[in-house]
Amino acid sequence: MKTVTILGSTGSIGVQSLDVTDKMGYGIAALAANTDVNTMEKQIRKYRPAVAAMFSEGAARELKIRVADLPVKVLSGREGVCECAVSDCDIVINSIVGMAGLEPTLCTLIKGTDLALANKETLVAGGEIVKKQAALTGAAILPVDSEHSAVFQCLQGMNAKKELKRVILTASGGPFFGRTRKELEEVTVQQALNHPNWSMGAKITVDSASMMNKGLELIEAVHLFDVRSEDVSVVIHRESIVHSMIEYADNSVIAQMGLPDMRIPIQYALTYPERYESPVGQLDLCKIGKLSFYEPDYETFGCINLCRKAIGMGGLHPAAVNSANEEANRLFREGKIRFLQIEQLVSQALYDVPQKDGFTLEDVLEADREVRRLTNERAKKLNN
Questions:
Q1: The overall pTM is greater than 0.85
Q2: pLDDT by residue (tens digit) across 241-270?
Q3: Residues with Cβ < 8 Å from 217, sequence gap 6 or more?
């Protein structure tokens, strides 16, 4: 019987995580979310956590009134979410979207609690300090992203890590696979949100459409698996059945496959190193029929190379491209910039931060604030 804390419990990954904990019979220690009071109230009434938090102060006030009849401590803001992160539990799932997940990640690791990480921005922006903190307390970082979970699973068993030659991340290609830059000039938000295979939140779905998601995952893979950026390849795989692969020194390639359902990597992170029956259906390759692979179009979708350049530069540069993308992604979803301008704004942000080898959390947060400010200023000028 494990107890689990879920940060980002009302989002796509959070809801699927609760589905997995239901099946496993795990208890819920704490829940945290952003603004969705209705869903959070239902979750509190069902799972009876000791603590719950909302990033939004207003949402927290409303939630406190709604659940006044229950013995749950309702907290608010960044401090409240961080308090949930250090609740007494066996493992914390961090599925908060964006840079907001970095501090709760560090709080979890400082306490020494194992972390199931579904917030890629944590390692993109603060990979060095996050890994250092995990090493100090011995807390495990277990990947939940389907691609990194796949690599993690392929590395299990008798194979020595030192024999790893290459990490191969698969990408669905999103809704705009095969389009030219000219064809992408006027695409709509609704079209970008129409992912062919996965059901995800709006921010991640747009990231998939721009291929920025794969660039961020490339940076995350460098930190998670201690590989060089040049040893991480990306391949388009439209069916989303092969979730990623690894290549060993002898050129043997091992893949992890399964239906495109996030409950598989969520459950593996929660039960590692054991495996149990899954709520996800069995993979029937005969029904799938074929698996296809393509080289990414790096000219049309330049965000991957921007991320590769950022991790090569090191320091705060990955944080800069991440922060610029978060703002640009939001501005696109709000109809304030065009789709291709996401990449343009990310490219400009690459040099918004000083070259800095060693950095602190405050350095990352300051870089985040400055890059967001500059990105919004540039966005206003773009379409004036």
A1: yes
A2: 999 999 999 999 999 999 999 999 999 999
A3: 120, 145, 147, 148, 169
